[in-house]
Specification:
Elements: E1 5-10, E2 13-18, E3 28-34, E4 37-49, E5 58-63, H1 86-99, E6 109-119, H2 126-141, E7 150-157, E8 160-163, H3 167-172, E9 175-181, E10 186-193, H4 198-223, H5 240-249, H6 252-256, H7 263-280, H8 282-286, H9 292-314, E11 329-333, E12 341-347, E13 350-359, E14 365-368, E15 373-376, E16 378-383, H10 400-413, E17 426-435, H11 440-454, E18 468-473, E19 478-483, H12 487-492, E20 495-497
Helix pairs in contact: 1-2, 1-10, 2-4, 7-9, 10-11
Length: 498
């Protein structure tokens, strides 16, 4: 590509996109800077789909080398940077979430996005810069990406909203909000706040989207300078004749009958329909003309479609709840005799064992990152073992999802913790998910509140959380908001908003 550079003003700072002087063999490449923070994004997409892919195989990695901030790793014995920090994992997830839904459903081509911070001026957030860089690189790659997306961070201090605040402004303010979206809509929100009003939050979202639209249009203008070869996505779709044949065997009454108070009740009724269809296709299955897995996937899609229809047209959920109804809540305090504070929190079937441990100031966690060295006196760890959903997997330490969900619960409780001068203990909360049928991260958050109280931590106010869902028909302009979504509503719905 011919070297090109464009700049624009973004809330008082220079926002720049370039493809020089560095260049790579990646399918798409861009360098995006905001102030003196510079992020290089490289994206690669395979020409052919991955055989047997059960999900969209997109991999996102964010790197924050210490050299970007003029630092050397703190360890005396190991100077080479190894596995990504928790902060890098959280930013990788920030990049992933608004981008993944903008690829065609069923895409099997492998996509990799690697964002590397080359320079950090410690005044500008590299996370949102990386999100914008990833979007720009995807546009230039020709990938079937229905973007672009733009991203900004919002702060609120002295009764004023701040676009892309400095770290100091974020720390001193009462809002830390990351928003990503397209020209048309907001697609991702992540926030920590000190009990801001709904009016402030809505105003922040509106202002954020105004700047997001400017960033998106700027990316489109930059991409328009190049002749970009489009890459076709290989999308796995079931055979239409087979879908029609299976649909003829499964009646609306059959699908409406897949209801029940528990996940196993619903799965059992779904299994009965599957067995009926498997029997009808016994000869084809024996001849390996069709697989049970393919038939089960078709049945599941029919069920999801009917479930959405019942919510939109009849406001009927598969477990019989009203749209705004929360599942039954049970709390069992002080379940562990030697723990400082423990509780089992159950909402519906989703169950979290949350345990609080108190330590001295010397037990605080020292965090050495590219941007800062800090000490954490409170940390929340979330663990999701495979048995929580009846799976079998190797245990290999905390997953990215574990780290992300732990951070959600951690940020929710920080504003209500006692001041360090009043309560000098180091506080560790561990939320072990025992059983899951949706919204386990919020079970961990509720469990954190209760276990802190059980341990005698004088929190300022209790904190709770649920996951909100959405089912919509964009053609008809109809939507329904769901409170406390369970697993199947999460997978078949249009939003998971915690």
């Amino acid at each position: 590509m011919e070297p090109k550079t464009m700049t624009m003003d973004l809330a008082g700072r220079e926002f720049k996109i370039t493809n020089s002087p560095i260049s790579t063999y990646a399918t798409g490449y861009a360098v995006v800077s905001l102030g003196d923070t510079i992020v290089m994004a490289n994206t690669s997409m395979s020409e052919k789909g991955k055989e047997g892919a059960e999900y969209f195989p997109m991999f996102v990695d964010y790197e924050e080398p210490m050299y970007a901030a003029g630092k050397i790793k703190g360890s005396r014995f190991v100077k080479r940077e190894g596995r990504p920090s928790e902060n890098a994992v959280l930013i990788s997830r920030l990049i992933d979430r608004p981008i993944r839904p903008l690829f065609p459903k069923g895409t099997t081509n492998e996509v990799q996005i690697i964002c590397t911070t080359l320079s950090a001026d410690l005044e500008v957030d590299p996370g949102t810069t990386a999100m914008n860089a990833a979007s720009m690189a995807l546009l230039l790659s020709g990938a079937p990406f229905e973007g672009p997306i733009g991203a900004v961070r919002m702060g609120y201090k002295d009764e004023k909203l701040i676009v892309n605040p400095t770290h100091e402004e974020t720390d001193e303010g009462i809002l830390n909000l990351v928003v990503a979206g397209t020209l048309d809509a907001i697609t991702m929100v992540e926030a920590a706040a000190k009990e801001v009003t709904e009016e402030v939050l809505l105003e922040a979202l509106e202002l954020a989207h105004k700047h997001i639209k400017e960033i998106c249009q700027f990316q489109l203008d930059y991409a328009a300078q190049f002749d970009i070869k489009k890459i076709e996505a290989e999308v796995v779709t079931p055979d239409e004749a087979l879908v029609e044949k299976v649909s003829g065997m499964v009646s609306t009454e059959d699908l409406d009958g897949i209801v029940g108070p528990t996940k196993m009740d619903v799965k059992g009724k779904l299994h009965e329909i599957e067995e009926k269809v498997f029997t009808a296709f016994a000869e084809q299955i024996e001849a390996e003309e069709v697989s049970k897995r393919t038939l089960a996937e078709i049945i599941n899609k029919l069920f999801e479609k009917q479930m959405r229809k019942n919510i939109l047209e009849k406001e009927i959920r598969i477990d019989g709840r009203k749209l705004d109804e929360v599942r039954k809540i049970s709390v069992f305090p002080d379940v562990l005799p030697r723990a400082h504070g423990s509780v089992i929190f159950r909402r519906g079937e989703t169950t979290s064992l949350s345990v609080t441990t108190l330590g001295g100031p010397g037990d605080a966690q020292i965090v050495d990152t590219m941007e800062s060295d800090l000490t954490k006196r409170y940390f929340h760890h979330y663990n999701f073992p495979p048995y929580a959903v009846g799976d079998i997997k190797m245990l290999r330490g905390a997953s990215r999802r574990d780290i992300g969900h732990g951070d959600l619960g951690e940020r929710a409780l920080i504003p209500v913790l006692p001041d360090e001068k009043d309560f000098g203990y180091t506080i560790w909360v561990n939320s072990q998910i025992i059983k899951c049928n949706g919204s386990s991260s919020m079970a961990g958050t509720c469990g954190s509140t209760l276990s802190l109280m059980a341990a005698g931590v004088p929190i300022k106010r209790p904190v709770s959380g649920i996951a909100m869902g959405l089912v919509s028909d964009q053609e008809k302009g109809v939507f329904k908001v769901l409170s406390d979504i369970q697993g199947m509503e999460d997978f078949a719905g249009d939003m998971d908003f915690k």
